[in-house]
Amino acid sequence: MTRWILSLQDTKQGKRGSFSEWEEECRVAVLSGDEERLEAASGRWLEAARQSGCLTPQMLEDYRHAALQLAEKLRDEAPTQPEEEVGGPSDGDLMEEAPYSQAGTLSLQSWREWTHRLLLRLSRAVPARQSQEKAKMGDIAGFIEQNYQSELSLQDVAKRFFVSREYVSRKFKQELGVNFSDYISSIRIEKAKLLMANPHLRIAKIAEMVGFHDEKYFSKVFKKQEGVSPKVYRTQMTE
Fold first, then answer.
1. Contacts of 153 (CB under 8 A, 6+ apart)
2. Does 30 map to a domain?
3. Which of 13, 104, 128, 156 has the most beta carbons within 10 angstroms of its beta carbon?
4. CB–CB of 51/43 below 8 Å?
5. pTM for the full model?
6. Which domain range does residue 8 map to?
7. Do 97 and 7 reside in the same domain of the chain?
8. C-alpha angle with apex 98: 92 to 100, nearest 5 degrees?
9. Burial status of residue 168 (CB atoms within 10 A of its CB: 0-12, 13-18, 19 or more)
10. In angstroms, rounded to a whole number, what is the distance separating the alpha carbons of residues 37 and 16?
11. CA-to-CA distance for 35 and 154, rounded, in angstroms?
12. Residue 106 forms part of a structural domain
């Protein structure tokens, strides 16, 4: 334990770095899940403050508040797992807990350990978020494959799965490499190709069966995806 450094000197004499200068390093450490990065990020501000020669109770309280604000933002991006899966102190404990010490003394190590527990807990939540998102996108993709003949709008799908339009649009591009409308079109074209094996089905009827209500538009989309028109594709199938 060491004494508080109750410096009342003009702060211009020594730079008091704010937590925001290390916020991005903490964010990267959390997202990487790398133990060494987490350990380094946990003590960066504290060490800089110690070396500045100006470390007060208010500075540590400001640091704690800024760290918890960052944690809140990261939790929004990567919600925490259930307690039994993550282990360690709960969110409530970390929010209320503060490594304040007895009668005018402090331990920078205690503050470093508190910060490390906070960042570590957040880093463990990242895989959970990724897993949840992959599962949700799988459900959305499965729903589209089962209902491709229907009018499916981005808004309708988003409402059904209780997410925003922006979320669905962004995740389709990230997870599947195509946008929402192109994904639906690709499924419809693949189904149409199967139906073309039946010589008794007219192309206009096939277009309607897979969700296109305009034969010309169907032909345009088909040619864009397959490189040939539906008629030429069917002829090539026969040959």
1. none
2. yes
3. 128
4. no
5. 0.49
6. 2-128
7. yes
8. 160
9. buried
10. 23
11. 40
12. yes
